[in-house]
Amino acid sequence: MSLQDKTLFNGSGRLMFLTHRVEGLTELDEIRMAIKGGCSWIQLRMKEGVDRDTAREAARLCASVNDRTVRLCVDDDIEAALEEGASACHLGKNDMPVDEAWRMARERLAPDAPFYIGATANTFDDIQRAVRQGASYIGLGPYRFTSTKKKLSPILGLEGYRSIVAACREAGIRIPILAIGGITLDDVAPLMETGVTGIAVSGAIIHAADPIEATRRFIEAINIY
Question: Where is 4-amino-2-methyl-5-(diphosphooxymethyl)pyrimidine annotated to bind (predicted)?
Fold first, then answer.
């Protein structure tokens, strides 16, 4: 099992796609489109509770990709992530502490099993706490208002990202940081210039006229940096 791995987010892996149920599309439909668009990090987010059959099928879809490694991250539910074959679990600020989740993972998985635990952060203090607890990466946000997130933390904007990333550098913290929260394609360049590792996106892909092409465009824009 891995904690902070600098190779986790590179190439197509610097885009994390987050599912969000909308009319006419299931989470599995969305995952298929994101994978077809080249995404290598999928987060299954089901805010009313993770459906185990969906999680199991999502893990199967990710594992069936032959040309690259596609990792499935289950949001909020470490039990579902461990039992249904996911590669990672993402924990919010009000979820189980990261170090407690690692204790569960170590009890269930082989020592060399690839598994990662991400943590949500809104401040530099949040990042410090997550790093102490062994987080593999940080989802830092929100960048702007987003309707896909309940109980939204204070908006960061570009200056917030610049300040927090700079504080991490000064403190010698090198954990991968993904920007998240209402991000559009036009936001990629200024956000990547703040020094974040990658971008997490939901609505800008799901609501695009062509979600597969939108995924490709996000990956291309991120990989300029």
Answer: 43-47, 75, 120, 149
